[in-house]
Structure formats: C-alpha cells, structure tokens
Records
---
Amino acid sequence: MSVIVASDLDRTLIYSAAALALTMPDARAPRLLCVEVHESKPLSYMTETAAELLTELGDTAVFVPTTTRTRKQYQRINLPGPPPQFAICANGGHLLVDGETDRDWHARVLARLADECAPLSEVQEHLLRTADPVWVRKHRVAEDLFAYLVVERELLPEEWVKELAAWAENRGWTVSLQGRKIYAVPVPLTKSAALREVARRAGAELTLAAGDSLLDADLLLAADQSWRPGHGELADASWSAPGVRVLPERGVLAGERILREFLHRVRAPR
Ligand SMILES: [Mg+2]
C-alpha cells in the first residue's frame, strides 16, 4: 500500500517568471531552478528548496504529476526527483505509465466523452465565431480532447467569459480561465477520474492533492487531503471545501509550502 500525491504543475508546483509573485527585496529572493525550457528559453521555475523537497517526496510516496498540459507540453518539463511511474496529462485524457500512454485508459475516456457531451468540433466552431480577434492571440486544440484560447487578459471582456461558461455548461463542457489561457474542457474529462484509476492500480492507502484552478477542484475533492495556494482561479473565487487546506502563500513560495505539507503528511503516522 502506498501514499499517492497527485499535484497540478503550473502555478501549483512550477511557475513562469510572470507567476513567481516574489515580494521580498531582490537580494533576499530564493534561488530558483529552471525546470522547463521552451524554444531554447527558460520558461518554468521552482525554488531550489522546493526541488529538494520534491526529490524527497518522490523517494517516499507515489508522486503523480497531474496536469491539463498535453503530453508534449508535459514532457518538456524536467522535474527533480525520480521519474514518476504515473503521470496524468490532458486533464485526465492521458494516463502515462512509465512515460507511455495507457491505451485502455484513453479508450475509456473517449467512450465517455462520446456518450456524455457535445463534440469538440461544436465548441471549436463556437469559439471561432464568438471570440474577438481584438483580444484572441491563438486558437488551440489539445490532444483532440479540448480547446483553449490564448488571450490578451487586459482586453478580455469578463462578460464574454461568463456567456461562454453558460453556453458550455448546456453542452456538458466547462470553462476555466488561467493566466492568459481560457480552457473549454468536457465535464467528464477530469483529473480526479484519472487519479482514482492510479489509486486503484497502485493500491493507495492515502491520496493527497494540490491545485490552483477550477480544473483542479474535482481533484482536490477526490483526494483524502488537499491544499490550494493563496493565488489562482480558486483563490479568486474564495473556493474551499472540507478536506481542502487554504494556504496563505502566493506564487513560487506557495509551491514550496505545498511540497512541505505533502511531505509532512506522508511522514505523519497513519
Ligand atoms: Mg495550475
């Protein structure tokens, strides 16, 4: 039996320069480790202390990176610690086992989506028709499972996001706004469903989770104990639930705190 630690990555454990939210004088800033390079440029960071904590965690629990990223976007992240046996990508659409996608799991996900929600093409068409090029920078489809837009956040009308969320809800889809990205994701495509599968396969006695966005809420609810940082979509909505601890830290220091909490819980007597 083992402890499963399923954590969101972006703005939970790893942070872009824009999301670091460092507030101390520069001379007292923590040393940062770059854990993702994209197009030959550094993109994501964690503190060096967080990197050490993550290595310890990987040695003592089943650490499961749990992300909305596509497999390709996930695979360019270079996390410290032992290579994870399991990773959850595409918001649960792909379960990687020793780095390879599990075909049975993916087939089950596709069957469920076909049964329970409107097709991706309908959502894509709606986004293309209604999103204003004034504030949309890119239209993207991820793994043929869901869609997202990259937007100019300052120009994005709040009203449009609300209308999109209502339109999507009627079709079995959900909307999440994270930084410069607006995601439209099928309701049944969840991190929690994939976590339950990992817990079943690994024979989990305890599951822990952390995340910052609306797409993490089901994950936080599914785990025995969860944490969320003081920033992000859930914090903006003052979201909480029994079993979810709200941390005061914001930005890259929240990532460090979350890892400390994981380790503390893993080591606590059960
Ligand atoms: Mg996140």
---
Amino acid sequence: MYRLLKQDGKAKRGEFHTVHGVIQTPVFMNVGTAAAIKGAVSTEDLNAIGTQVELSNTYHLHVRPGDDVVYKMGGLHKFMVWDKPILTDSGGFQVFSLAGLRKIKEEGVYFHSHIDGRKIFMGPEQSMQIQSHLASTIAMAFDECPSSVAERKYVEDSVARTTRWLLRCKEEMARLNSLPETINPHQMLFGINQGAIFEDIRIGHAKEIAALDLDGYAIGGLAVGESHEEMYRILDATVPHLPVDKPTYLMGVGTPENILEGVDRGVDFFDCVYPTRNGRHGHVYTNHGKLNLFNAKYELDARPLEEGCQCPACRRYSRAYIRHLLKAKEMLGMRLCVLHNLYFYNTMMTEIRDAIEAGRYQEYKAGKIARMRAGE
Ligand SMILES: [Zn+2]
C-alpha cells in the first residue's frame, strides 16, 4: 500500500508498506543480480549503508541455482539472509538481451540459457511461478522490452502483447498467492509500461495498465541507448498518465543526475548497476564528480574517497590505500569502492526525500548537479 506524503512540483515523497517493512520513497534499489551484490558485499553490509530494497534477477536465479533450490531453502529472504524488501525483475529484459536464439510467441519466449545453452521456455505464468518460488516482496510483470530503435509497427504489436501478458501475470499471481504452499502469499505485482520512444504508444499503454489497479507501475525500455533528453521527454509524457497514488519505478536508471531528473518527474523507485559496476572498476561517485582511483594523482593522497562521508570505506581508509588495493587486484579495493558508491546513492536518496519534504527540491537538485558537474 502506497501513501503519498508530500508533493513538491511533480516530485513525490511517499511510503510503500510491504509485508517486509516500509519503503521510504524516492528509493534506490541496490542490485544483487544473482542474490548477491557484486564486489563481496553482504546483506550485513547493506544494513550498514542504509539499503532499503535489494533487487534480484529472476532469469539469473532460474538458470542458477534454480528457483526450486531457492524455494526449498525457504525463499530468497532466508537464502541470502535479508529481512527487508526484495524486488525481483521478471526475467523479460534478460531473456531479450542475454539469452541466445530466442523465439517470441503469444504463449511466451523460447530461448537458450547463456550458462549452458539448454532450451528454456518462459511466459507470463512461468515468470510468476519462478518469482513466487523466490518469494520476493515485489514481482515484476513479464514483458517484452522492444529496442529503442524498433519500428513503430513492431512496437505497437509488442506493447499489445505485453498488455495481454500482464493480464495473465495478474491472474497467475492471484492464483499463486492463494496456494497454501506459497512462501509469500502477499507478493505484490508491478506492471511495466513500454512503447520505446513513441509518446502516444507510451501514453495509451500507461492508461490501459493504470486501469488494472496493480500495486505499482514501472517504466521499462528506457536507458537502453536513447539520449537522456529523449528519456526525459518520454517521462514527461508518460508519468502523468500513471496513478499518482501508486509507486512509479523507472527501470535500470541511472546516473545520479538521471535519478535527480527522474524524481523531478514523479518517479519513486530506481535501480541501476552503475554504482556497483563502476566501483569494481575503481570509479567512485562524490559530490564533486566521479574519481578514477587508478589516476596517478591519488598515489600519495591521504584523504578519504570523499571528505565527510560516513561510509565504511571513508571512515577508515585513504585514497592512496584503496588505489594500491585496486592496482594489486585485492578484492578489498573493489569492495570498499562498491560500499562507498552504494552509500553515496542511498545517502543522495535521503537528501532527496528531505528536500521534497522541505519543499525545496528544485533548489537541492540544481545545487547537487552543479557541484557534481564542477568536479574537484
Ligand atoms: Zn565513502
């Protein structure tokens, strides 16, 4: 259940009540694709850096270790030892981007596993069954994510099929939630808006899915190659047609600046691999722009990654030491950079929520972007 606490312009400050606790929005979900945050980050660490929601991947967990294994181990929460909310994506995006040789039919998608090449079928019912096995807090509907450069006719047909699939997802989730053996019978379902970069298709689809009274609504198929300006244009057009009293989730986005702009357009939930992936490569986010720790100028730099940062890396270690660890390929180097980056994102979300509550979101956003752009 979503409670809209305050609006500042279009920016929303809300609370999402779930069976695994309350999510304060806007929120950045920390991505743990295969039930782990890459960079040797544990769920204990997530608690220490202010993570509210962890995101895991249906396709990856279905392929390995298998959702039946997770189910037999009592569901994802028990398996990875995390008692706060978990969102699982539907597997659709990975089926369309990772898997080899796929065939899309009305019933679903036939494809080959990227791990061992074995043939797999996934449709709306299978995706819901896998996510029910994983027992996440929030399940995502199974959709097709058409390319941002796909032709209009293809996008129209694809979006119509995604709507039919959404109805099947809703029905199947209701059935699964009614079974006695279901681990989380309160699992919630978010629908996904598609339509590539065609505003009218996006709006039509948003209206259709908004009528289904789902627990939340995502905007998919953005940040897949189109420009930032195009993404903001689509958000400007689409978000007003999604219910304001339900959470809005912009999938796979993005940079700190993208998030600040998304919040400004009414988005509540975000997720992205940038803070973890960049951290593993020694790129760290600060309020004065991104640093590349491999740069020689940090060799004798005794300062923390960011002065004043309260993350586990900055409270103890110097840039010089972390740079050495990265260069020596010591896992601790990656781990410290990932912890700092996730802490940076999580802390930015707290600042965002405070700014909306205080009615000074525009001022906060402009100041934050200006400082990050100005650099060191
Ligand atoms: Zn830090």
---
Amino acid sequence: MNAHANPRPAVRSDWTREEIAALFDLPFNDLLWQAQAAHRASHEANAVQLSTLLSIKTGGCPEDCGYCNQSVHAETGLKATKLMDVRAVLQAAAQAKDAGSTRFCMGAAWRNPKDRDMPAIVEMVQGVRQMGMETCMTLGMLTEDQARTLADAGLDYYNHNIDTAPERYDQVITTRTFEDRIETLEHVREAGINVCCGGIVGMGETRADRVGFIHALATLPVHPESVPVNALVPVKGTVLGDMLADTPLAKIDEIEFVRTVAVARITMPASMVRLSAGRESMSDAAQALCFMAGANSIFTGDKLLTTDNAGDDRDAALFARLGVTPMAAECKVELAAE
Ligand code: SF4
C-alpha cells in the first residue's frame, strides 16, 4: 500500500512550543514535504473522508462563543429551534449515506445536554449506527454519566473543540474555561468514545497563538482521532464577526491556513485532519494545498451547522480534478486497527 512507503512517524505528546513554532517557520515547500511524508506514512495518499454535519438543535445557546451565530449573545436574527424529531434526523442520515458520507455528525447548540434529552439522543445514535455509518455528536459539556450513556448507545466520536490557544481562551469565550473543555474531553476518553477536537483560526490571533493552539492539541495524552481545523466565517452580529468585519484580519491568509494544517498533520500524524468551516470561501487551489499538507477529511453538503459549505457538486468536481477519492469506511477501520 502506498500509505506505508515512508516509515510511520512516532506519535508523540511531548511536543514543545519551540518545536511547533519551528515547524510553522519552515520554508513552505519544506513544511509541505514533511507534512506529505507524515501523511503518506499513516494514511491513504489520495483518499479523503466525507462526513455530513446536521444541526439537530439550532440557536438559543447560552454560551457566548465570540465566533458563533447560535449564541443568544449574538445579534444575528437566527431562529432558535427545539431538538429535532428522531425520525427527521434518521431521514437526513439516510440521505447523507446515499450521498457517500461514512460519518454522520449531529450538533446541538447547548451548553450541555439535559438528562431529559438523552433518550432521544440515544435513539439517534443507535438509528444512525444501524445504517452502517459512524456517528459523531457535539452537544456541549458532558458529565461522566452522560458520556457513559453515549458510549453505551454506541457513539463513535464526540466533538468538543478547544477552540483556540489556552492563553487566548477568555478573549473568545467567557461563559466557560479552557479547563472545562479539557474536563469533558477526559469524560469522553474515559467512556471509551473517540475524540474529535480542534478549533478555529482566523479569529485575529497571532502565529504564536496558533502555535499554542496546536501545542494544546498535540500534547493531549492521547491525540484526538479527528482534528477539525476551521477558518473563521465572520458572521455579522457575532462579537468576532463585527470586530473583524472590514479589517484585513477578516480572512486568514490562505498560505498561513495551509501551514496550520501541515503543522497539525506533522504533530498528530495518526489523526484525521479535517477541513471544516471556512472551506466554502477557499479557492480550489488552496484546498488542494490543504490536501497536500495532510488534510484528509471534509464536511460535505451545502451547509455546516448554520453557515454555508462548499456543496457536493463543487467537491465532486474538485476531487475529480485532483484524483482524490472518497475514503471507504473499511479503509479507516483497517488503519485504525493497525
Ligand atoms: S459554539 Fe456551541 S457552545 Fe458556543 S455558542 Fe455556539 S452553539 Fe453554543
């Protein structure tokens, strides 16, 4: 298999900030070369995982994440909804499967799920699993018991992003702490659920902050199995959207974004690195560079939770031009089991 042409790099959790900063500082071609080698050593060279994300409960969230239009603190006019009906969620999952997705991610705009919501959540997980897709949920903070309930239901992944560097956390969110995030991640790990954890760049941070963000992920005792790297989509009415609108910071430089992806790939070689929010405004060439830098997972469809996404047609056309194929579920299982 071409995936094993290079020796598989050691998975380390002892990265220093200096080492990570030095990777960011490499000449671009050297960085991409190293990232591509790390990628090929642990993953299929030209396969990209397709996941679909569904908002199962939109808006009205009491948290004040400065980037999010679902917060009650944002003035975006987004209408809050109740938790979706289980049947409607399963219908959407069936459509995603027909469109080629192998993972179905369900997101609810909550600070944390209430225990009364758990039976419906459990039914959703079980229903999607029965279709043969991997399941992922993002529901906010979890207690140990809730994490165990989700594990017993068969949940494959739990998404809980660290968002940004620890030292910058309170500039982005004030209603919870970085430590709160880590605590939920620990509950998820202890319950035996795979972790999906990344964050957002382009929030006006410095490169040192991006170093701190990757460092926080790459020094977790066990690396997240999935690492979503988002580029901020500045939405008017959100704190960050209003702050960054019409400034040169409104969109992260694409080369710097590719560098961030490459550093994530090198420091977390066995993880799936996912391009998430912000992909719709990226050029095809920038996305191609992200794949070269080791990104091997994307969200499909026209929408992420509430913001626009690239759309299936554009993705299919790009994949054809790049000779990239959707990753088969069996391939991931095989690699994960090795
Ligand atoms: S990112 Fe999640 S937790 Fe934060 S405001 Fe939005 S929905 Fe709530």
---
Amino acid sequence: MGETVLEVKNLESFYGPIMAIRGVSLKVEQGQVVTVLGANGAGKSTLMKTISGIMDPEKGHIVFEGEEIQGMEPHQIVNRGIVHVPEGREVFPLLTVDENLSLGAYTRSDKAEIERDREMVFSYFPILAERRNQEAGTLSGGQQQMLAIGRGLMLRPKIMLLDEPSLGLSPLLVQEIFAILNRLNKDEGVTMMLVEQNARVALELADIGYVMEIGRIVMDGSADRLMESDDIKAFYLGHQEEGQRGERRWKRKKTWR
Ligand SMILES: Nc1ncnc2c1ncn2[C@@H]1O[C@H](COP(=O)(O)OP(=O)(O)O)[C@@H](O)[C@H]1O
Ligand SMILES: [Mg+2]
C-alpha cells in the first residue's frame, strides 16, 4: 500500500451556528484517486474549503505529509502542494487562456519549467492550445472546466482537490474530462481527491470512496465494493437514473404544450 499523504481526523466546520462538517475522518494515499460522494448540501465543498484553508475548522486535524496544516493560510497550503479546483470552474473571464494558465503558475519562478508544464497542459487539453489567445469567458462550460484543471496543474500539485468537475456538463463532456483525469492520475501520478454528486463516473475513476450525508461520512470502501453496494445502487446510482428519467418525462411534457 502507498504512503498516506493526506489525513483528515475528526474535522468539524461551521458557518456561524450551522455545523456543516460533523466529525469527518478520511485518508488519501500517494497516487490514489479518492472520491467523496454525497447529495447537494452534504458538506462536500465545505470539506474541500476547510482542507485548502479557505475556511478554518472548529475542531480536528488535517495532516499533509506528516505536518498539521489546519488553520494555515490558503497560500501556505498551496505552497505545500495542495491545489483546489473549486466548484463552478472559477476562471478569470476577461483574461486569455494563456493568461489564466500563467496565473496558475504565480507561485513559481522557474520560467523554462513553467513553459514545459504549459505544453503538458496543452497536450492533455489540445482545445486550450487552439484557444490560447481567446478570453476565458468566451469558452464553453466544458472548456472552462478544462482550463480550471489546467490552471491547477500549473501549480505542480502533489494532490488536486476537484470539486464537482462534472457539474453542468453534458454526459459526453463528463466522459471526456474524466478520461483525462484518469490519464493525469495514471501517467503523471497526480493524487486526487474528487467530490461528486455523479456517483457513477466518480466511482469508475476512483480507487476509494466515501459517502457523506449531512456533514458525516456514512459509508466508505473500495470504489469497486461501493459500486456493488445495494445502498449505493438505491440511493446514488439508482436515484440518478430515476432523476434522468424524470427529467426526460418533464421535457417531453413541455414540448407537448
Ligand atoms: N456560505 C454559507 N453560509 C451558510 N451556510 C452554508 C454556506 N455554504 C454552505 N452552507 C451550508 O452548509 C451545508 C453544506 O454545504 P456544502 O458544503 O456547500 O455542500 P455540498 O458541496 O455537498 O453541496 C449546507 O447545509 C449548506 O446550506
Ligand atoms: Mg458543493
């Protein structure tokens, strides 16, 4: 088994009086993809914000490569190699693709290496190379997600925290982006923590999964085992198909009118 790079122990985080993270513990080993699944409002984004220092936890420990990092400033945490790609692909819309990537490398001064990494990003996302001089705000949602991931890669992450990269994208684009994440993990050795509502694609990519409900971990195990679990099938894989069927019915109804 690999070495543990990130360990979260009994973490609690609040928004004022609201307890959003209620004693979460989890581990990520070197080279793994670990996914945290859960419905909207489960606390997934709060967990990532607390790990990356955007929020301070009330209690608990976050240990990265043997060092306690809870309560550190976000830039100190980035400098240690933890890179957060936030929900909603926050790229700078008025800056070009190239400028967004350069901003990703803001903590670095090794010019030749930065250019090498930019070419690496372009090799994974060729569409970004084609559009390198275009303003990021003019890209499609999928392309903006690719840019957000590419910008994260420019920081040479030891671990990437990916917050719902599938959100709002077509199934085809989701497949494309997850295939690239898989290659980044296998070929570049990027360790990943991925939070998702889309349980199916997340479990296909991940080695290990945790399921979060109302701020707590309620289940965990290997991705293969979770995929076969009746509870997961019923509540996460089943519901999704149900939801999609519902949506199709709804769409059909609308066109009848
Ligand atoms: N800025 C905020 N202020 C107050 N409550 C919040 C804020 N952001 C999230 N919450 C609450 O915290 C809980 C967890 O939210 P979040 O971490 O965004 O869930 P998820 O990412 O799993 O959808 C929810 O109950 C949500 O309403
Ligand atoms: Mg979220």
